[in-house]
Amino acid sequence: MIYVGENKSILCKGDFRPAQLYKGDKKITGYTVEKFEGTGSVTLENCYNDRVYDVYVDESTQSITVRGKNYFSLDKVLIFNAATQPYNNGLKVQKTGTDNRSNKIPVSLPAGKTINVTMEVVDSQIDGTETYITLCFYNSEGTKVTERRVSSSATKKSFSFTPNKEISYFQFIFQANITYNAVGDYVTMDNIMIRTEGDDSFEPYIEPQTIPLENGELTAEIPTFKGTTVIEAEATISGKYKKREVE
What does the pLDDT look like over 199-217, one tens digit per residue? Predict the structure, then answer.
């Protein structure tokens, strides 16, 4: 670990590319080359903006998908009868009508794995009663798999669930109690994240990339992203990556 003044700093090149710092023959800080292997899904922690090395993919695999750990994209949210605006890593939602249901936000969440949802309520205005944000999760047939309601009065929200069917989309519903619909109420949410593994430190959404195979060979390199990289494959995949050393 290196310091700038009294603050811990991360050594990297350019756009968070791998770097090493030596004093003579002794390494001060940098990375180690880590091996990984898995089937279905592999999570790589403490990555750089780099790539995977020495990749082996089972010949039965048709393609692999690589993504960041956050499955939630702000760019895909539209809430009807409400005024929305971006707020850092979240959004502010203010009621302009009585039905404040969002569009169907596409998300691909696997069945049988624990799904973790976190967000922070930065600010809210309610008129005499509690206001809630309800998240409803649906499968590809439009059947509701589960829903969770979070209150605007607490600061940090988090909940987990394990779906028995793959989740294809979800909706935000911004609501008060059954008989109360105050136009003008608002909730400001920040650091919204939906993930399958790892801690709840926020990482931005990264558009997933699908890499096909031809004759058993990848048609492009597998990238790694700053923070966490999730590799999803139909069969076994193994390789190496440069893992940032942390104290």
Answer: 889 999 999 999 999 888 8
Give a yes or no: residue 200 inside a domain: no
54: domain CATH number is 2.60.120
Higher per-residue confidence, 62 vs 93: 62
Residue 120 within any structural domain of the chain: yes
Tokens of 204: 């931005």
Q: Is residue 54 part of a domain?
A: yes
CA-to-CA dists, residue 79 to 58, 117, 133, 159, 224, angstroms: 43, 19, 12, 22, 33
**125 pLDDT band (50/70/90 cuts)?**
confident
Domain presence at residue 201 = no
The structural domain count of the chain equals 2
Is the domain of 126 the same as that of 182?
yes
Identify the domain containing residue 49 by its residue range: 2-68+206-244
